Structures
1.
Amino acid sequence: MTLNKTNPSKTKSWESLQSISENLKAQSILSLFENDSHRVSSHTVKWEEFLIDFSKNKIDQSAWDALYSLASECKLEEAKKSYFEGATINETEGRAVLHTALRAQNTAVRIDGVPIDEDIKAVKEQMRRFTSSVIEGSHKGFTGKSITDVVNIGIGGSDLGPVMVVDAMAYYKNHLKVHFVSNVDGDHINEVLKDLNPETTLFVIVSKSFTTQETLANATTAKKWFLNFAEEKWVANHFAAVSTNLKMIDEFGIDQKNVFTMWNWVGGRFSLWSSVGLSIAMAIGYDRFEELLNGAQGMDEHFYEAPIALNIPTRMALLSVWYNNFLEAETEALIPYTQYLQRFPAYLQQAIMESNGKGVDREGNEVTYQTGNIVWGEPGTNAQHAFFQLIHQGTKLIPVDFIGFKSSLHGDQSHHDKLMSNFFAQTEALLNGKSAEQVKKELISEGKSLQEINALLPHKVFKGDNPTTTLLIDRLTPYNLGALIAAYEHKIFVQGVIWNIFSYDQWGVELGKQLAKTILDEWNTKKAASHDPSTKELISYYRQNS
């Protein structure tokens, strides 16, 4: 069963939302609180250790109801069934989308009639054995020493997910130092290699095809560096691979028992739950990796079963559609109030923009409405001293997700209270702003002259009415992190369903790769290729001066 192909802009709900949005544009969020004494409770969803407060958004119940109707008209429930049961919803690549199966305790899903449950369990057990041997020290390097450093070599989903989780779970890390190399820029890998000991370093090469240019270049550089100190036969002890290209892996010298399979029904940007998460399991131990999976599974079940009004990922997605398509928001910001989640916005940039940055619908027609979201952010409170000026007093509508935790991990309550006072104050300030009357009183109390007051007044007024969603979670644990990531994954899915696009291919990534290969081949063969005048001149200048 493939996904329904409904043009959302032709639905009755879409028409209703356009009418509702025109009315709401003229209303302030504060007025919505004034008109609904139960607004906070009716716009708050609680699930396990999560509380999501949607009340500070420019949306009322009539808009929510119309969005729920839109989801129904776009056959969201049928789409969820197809998603979880392994239908070929990635139609352009002929694949199922089953990262959810990786974290299920048991799954009856079949691909082309073949059950996948046992394969998943086998790879998990292989990961458990291998990571345990490295962590406990029984896996030895070429001089008999245990591994101290692990280098994950990948790019895109083979890097962004693992590096984000390893950063986020630093509190739970063991003694292994885990490093990440992704950029084909040689300075990246050489900076990492210069501080490593070849006797105690393990490289994990993550590439489904084992042909990705950036990953293969970095893997080859790592191998050359290693062979400056050891014989070829010892490559087997110091390199592992997550891939399906057994021939090239064998030629590289990696021991087959240290090769972890990938499946084509797991997209790269949703692959951290698979063997791509090997570096995560080595950083925090396999048991905690399983806790991460369990948290994601918990959110999977919530997403699949919870009614729409209480469904966290669905409401997040519909709110995003509301801003993107009816209130003309150009971007969305994500501000985690924990340094541990410093890579979370970057991770979601790929997950969201690579998934839903599509300009044609599921029937191949150009869309006539906005899709995708431009996503950006940094941790609070750093973000407050960087770009919050734009959010507070700029000209753009920027919905913001604030992600915070009730408890700190190290238990420094003084620091955490300062952090969280900013967390709550910022959403309050963005909602309420500061009126001209308030500013005037402040300036008078400071002894400013009338001339000074008139000059300063317009610059110190905050209009407020800036929308925010608050995600308040008890504690940053592997389980809760897994649930948080899964919530945003399902948000992506719902948006794709509503927008009638394919969220799980990424053809836009391919063109640049193809042209880069053409240019590199041109340099290697010294046979000129065809380029536009600008590119031709730039290449000529580079070759003359490099």
2.
Amino acid sequence: MADKKLSPRQKMINLMYLVLTALLALNVSAEILNAFILIDKSIQKSTENVNVKNGEAYNVFIALQKENPKKVGDWYQRSMDLKAKSDEITNKMQELKVLLVTTADGPEGDVNKIQKKDDNNVPSQVMILEGKGEELKTLVDSYRDFVLGLIEEDERSDSNSLVRNVKTTLSTEDVESLSEPGKMLPWVESNFEHLPLIAVVALMSKMQNDIRNIESDMLSYMKGKIGETDFRFNKITAIVTAPVSYVRIGEEFIADVFIAAADTTQKLKVELIEGPGSIKVDTVTGRGIYTGPTGSPGTFTWKGNILLENPASGELTKYPFENTYQVVAPTFAVAAEKMNAFYIGVLNPVAVTATGKSVSATISGAGGTMTPTGAGKYNVKVTQRGNANITVVADGKTMGTVTFRCLPVPDPYATVGGSKGGVIAKQSLLAQNFVKAQLDNFVFDLDFPVTSFTVSATLGAFTEEYSTNGSQITQQQKNLISQLKPGNKVYFESIKCRAPDGTTRSLGSISFKIQ
């Protein structure tokens, strides 16, 4: 019976089933999550290197301020304002990373040892629903406007490469949806909605890296405005920056090599002494451009020297630099969000992710179709048993295929007044108007309309039965029930229903004994 108490063993089995269901729904590859960890560590290492260079640049401003406060004072104050603003926004980003991780992992959560790396609910909750993403967007917009305000007014046109770089790197404009070309997504949604926690943390690390690189570019710009050749520096340091320190196989890795305190009357000379790739000098920007190979995954280190002529002796002085970049294989994932299988005749929600700007997915087998429902989201419908294959393509390259089993929806059971049979008062049974089909403890909320059934009972020496189409108990069938006496039995037989896949299911029969 429906109200029968479950044994402790059955309760444990049911609990294990729920846990297994949850695990199967999390169809995200651990390799993908681990790749994001490597990416995040690499970005943090790059940020640490830039912080060291920026710290040395600020020391130069402090030394120049002491040597000539009248000439340097204004630019010194701007550099200190830049440091305060840069520290403020990167600290805020770090606070958000901690908030995301502790929300997911609890108060003891550690940004460097994230437990729930694949959690894709907390980023949306914190950054979108709780408004932290909009707060961050406001900070980025304010920082961008502040940095642009440090540039001389007559140099703020888009023809200035520094201005273009600031606007591009710190842009918070809407971006085009990858899954729906032509549809624009707000900056907050495109960066934080439906992404795993570890991916959002890596993205925040990348934003911190962007801030520090812009800070570095602005320090170089301001030192150039002072006229460094008027002063004697006690240290000149080579700096290497790159938009990213990881690339996919086949993509080009590019990094900038420049010096923190340069003599604008000299032409930059750069030499590569170790590592793959090649390096050349861009005469327009005055920076060295390194191009490294990306034909296979791995970690690659390259070293070289910036050659600067000593104004006093005319001799070339070498300033060494070293940098490391990673090449990672492209990754993708296809996750069935309800169960790790597709059910025939129902809409099975699926999430598709891949590394690339343009990502698409197609289905084959089991009579399957895919309908986009949002960024990386699809509804899959299959019509046959067997296997359905979903193939993911990113930037025109096939990433791989994931296979899912296709199964029919389980049979429901028949009820009258919510009961599957047993002892019942005649008036209670007469008060019921429909025979229904129910399916409990299933991941989909489905409807199984009853299409026909028969009511039969024995009166005296004769058995009477009345059949009907549909789910409603007819008046004729109720008249039969009204003639029953205590102890008599009535049967609801040949009950049939229509399943979501279009098939007709036979639900057998149920019986009631009149009280």
